[in-house]
Each structure stands twice: as structure tokens, then as C-alpha cells.
């Protein structure tokens, strides 16, 4: 693998992104380092300093000072700066996409797609910067005017997961910036290099526009650094993407100080395949949904719920589709499936396989680990399919690997009930050409998820539609529709331009 960005020989330090870096306050011998290994080939690709608590505090202080200036910059002007960032990401799309693919292990196409999402959210945010609309209301009192305004919140903490190492940051940061907030990003400890690359890519834009130091900040580390953000009353909003376990911990800490949180957590996504489905559409959608990013998307298809009359047909078609899958380096575009993120993920794949067998599950497509030439990292596994039952504890959990559960239904009500009968509520889909079935699935009596699709799969969301889910998925919405409101505070204003002081509700008060 050739170096795709000039890789530093010394461990890289996080901090703020316009040139000033915070150096650790501890003696360098005590400084913790994250070693980032590529799951593609097992190579060590970066050594990154972990932020100390002292680094963190200095970053927050700088961010707070920057907020005082940034909030005064007119929103369309902030949008113009985000537009320039979009141009930078267009310029470095191939380099950053390749780095995402190499550090995280998703296919090059998906790595490039992730950078395209950054570009798309930049474009979206530019338009949004001129549309931070408040309402005006008719007052019940004469010569009074009521309106609401949206003001920035302050410091926004962004905790992100390994599987979308850069896009999730941009969904939050680009919108937060046009809203007038400043951001502190705590990326996954499994993908620190892509985060540093993003800060470098926008650095010139920040410098060229004299953006104050501290508008875009980065702190590195694992759970500790995430907990600092969650507990810190100086951080107005914590937007956290990751497992439900992490989300519950963050929610508790942030609620304990009555702060705001925006949670994007695990999914357990199903596709219903009706007897009225076009299987030529359904099969590729299921396969991409189940094996794309090696089953490591929050929207990965984990369950398919098939009408009993076409069950065997669907099973056989899936078997032959899976037989065509080629597994190998994510950077080689002839392969469909890359590696899992690390050995811990491989372990969870193995544990789950055993539990499926113990529960009575039957593999339609057999699991397995790959070794030998090309698989030296030890992170490559075979995508598999198991016949299972929805209520089994193993099916109720999100296991972040390419295991697909095959379930059967008789009536549509039964299918929708199975689809909804899991703790998570992120993405869902139905394949049917029957209008009544499709509409019922989308109705109040249908899917209980944040995303419900017809004749497309569960993964592959677009910028523009609010993204997020219900129940243990956390309830947050990002990257479109009116999601910008989460990054602002609403202020209601009543203005009296008359010569009397009437009270609301007709209350009289005489002096
Ligand atoms: P993870 O929960 O292990 O880690 C996510 C982030 O949280 C990391 O930055 C980690 O350092 C931090 N963290 C961990 N524990 C913390 C704590 N107690 N307090 C504060 N921060 C903490 O998740 P992961 O393995 O990186 O990612 C996979 C998970 O993320 C899956 O469950 C997936 O469904 C979910 N995910 C959800 C979405 C979504 O939009 N709903 C998107 C991507 C990933």
C-alpha cells in the first residue's frame, strides 16, 4: 500500500484546526498513544496522541472564546465558509475516500461515497444558512407582535463511531457551524487518522477566512474523552453516534446536568419481502444491505421477513447471490466485501455464530473465517445467512457483523409485528408492488422506525431526509429536514409597540 497522504513519522497531536495545536502537558513518557492498524492488511498506519484532561480543558476554553466571535458572523457568511469546505472535500475526495477505506476497511466505493456525503451536507448546509426560519405569531394583545428567533447553542460535542468515521462528523459540524455553534469532535479511537485528515483539509479554509481558533476542535481518545464531553456543563449539546450501550451512558450523564443530547444508536433493520415483491429488485437490495461495509452499518439489513409462499424461492436466490460474493481488500474494486474493523469484531462474529447454533438456528449460507494470502489482518469473515426466529435473544440484539437472519410470515400484520418486535427502531423496508401493502407499511399501524422504505433496502440514506430512529436507536435526527433546530435554542419575543400595558388572558392589575 503506497502512502496516500504524507504520513507523519511522529505521533500526531489533536487540538484546534487553524494552526495552533495543543501540546500535551504531561511529560511525553506518560503520553498515551493510539496505534491505528488497517484491517485491510494489518499494517500500523498511524500513531496518534491521546488528549489528556488538560488538553481537553484548553480545547473547551478556546472553543468557548471562539463562540463569542463566531455567533456574531452572519449565518449566510458562515454558510459561505462551509461552501468553501465543500470545495476542499471535492478536491481531496479520492485521497480521503481511500484513507477511509484503508483505515476503516469499507470498500473504496463506499469510502468515496462517505466523502460525497460530506460534500452533500456542505451543499445542504449552505442553503440552510439562509433558512434558519422563525415563525411570527398573532398576539392576543393590541399593538403587540410575537415572534420566535433561533440562536446558536454554544459548544457542540460530537462523539462518532468507527463505521462512518468522517460523514457523521460532517452531518453535525456543517449544520452546527451555519447555526453559529462551535464544535469539538471526539472521533472513534479506531479511526483517528481520518479525523485528523478532515481537520487538515478544512484548515486552509479556516485560516483564509480568519475564522477564530476553536471553531473546529478535535480531541482524541476512547471512552474517557467521550465521558468528559458528556459530563461537561460547558458543552451545550452532545451529539453521540454509536452503540446503544454508549448512548444510554451519555444520555444519563447529559440529562444529569440537564444538557441536550442527540443520539444516533444501534439498529436491527428488517426487510419484509411480500409475495407481491419484484424479486429482481429485492435480492440485490437485500445482499447489499446485509454485506455492504461487511455488515457494519447502523442501517445494515439484519433480518428479512419473507412471505411463506415465496420463502424457498427467496432462500435459494439468496444462496446463489451469496455464492457470487468475492471477499478481499477493500481497496481492490473487484471485491464485494472487505474486513471487519478488528479482531474484537471477529470474536463477536464467532460468539454469535455459536449462539445461533445453540438456539437451533440453521445456516443456509455457512459462516467462516478467512486466512492466508490477502487475509493477513485476520479480520476477514464470510457473510452468512441463518434461519432463525424473531424472538430469540440473539436476533433481538444488534451484532455488528454480516449475519443475516431469515424469518417467515403468513399475513402482513404478522410481518409488521415481527418487524417492530425488537428494541431498536432505525431503518425498515418492504418489497411489494401492492399499493395497499405499501401504504399500510408506511401508515401509523405500520413500521415503527425512523426510516421506512418501499422497494429499496434499509441502508443508503441520502442527505436531505432527517436520519435517525426510535426506541433504543435514541430518537435523534440529523442531516436534513428540520434537524438544524437541534443545534439552536428557540427564543420567543413579544414586542409592545403601543401605549398601554395589557396583560395576557385578560388579567387586570391596577396600580
Ligand atoms: P461505540 O459505542 O463502541 O463507540 C462510539 C463512540 O462512543 C466512540 O467514539 C467511543 O469512544 C465513544 N464512547 C464509548 N463509550 C462511551 C461512553 N461511555 N461515554 C462517552 N463516549 C463513549 O460504537 P462503535 O463500535 O464505534 O460503532 C458501532 C455502533 O454505532 C453500532 O451500534 C451502530 O449501529 C452505531 N451507529 C449508529 C449510527 C446511527 O446513525 N444511528 C451511525 C453509525 C453507527
Approximate helicity band: 25-40%
Largest sheet: 7 strands, mixed
Quickly count the helices: 14
Total number of strands: 20
Amino- and carboxy-terminal Cα gap: 83 Å
Ligands bound here? nicotinamide-adenine-dinucleotide
Which ranges are low-confidence, i.e. pLDDT below 50, for 5 or more consecutive residues?
Answer: 1-9, 18-28
**Radius of gyration from the CA trace?**
25 Å
From the spread of the alpha carbons, the general shape counts as: globular
Strand content: 15-25%
| Mean of residue pLDDT values | 95
The side-by-side strand order for the widest beta sheet comes to 13-14-15-12-11-17-18
The chain-level structural class is alpha/beta
Assembly level: single chain
Structure description:
By secondary structure, the protein is an alpha/beta fold. It has 14 helices and 20 strands. The strands form five sheets. The chain has a seven-stranded mixed beta sheet with strand order 13-14-15-12-11-17-18, with helices on both faces. A six-stranded mixed beta sheet has the order 1-8-7-6-9-10, sandwiched between helices. A three-stranded antiparallel beta sheet has the order 4-5-20, with no helix packed on it. Strand 14 (384-387), helix 12 (393-396) and strand 15 (403-409) form a beta-alpha-beta unit. 51% of the residues are buried. The model is unreliable at 1-9 and 18-28 (pLDDT under 50).
Short description:
The chain is an alpha/beta fold and 511 residues long. It is built from 14 helices and 20 strands. The strands form 5 sheets. Strands 13-14-15-12-11-17-18 form a 7-stranded mixed beta sheet, with helices on both faces. A 6-stranded mixed beta sheet has the order 1-8-7-6-9-10, sandwiched between helices.
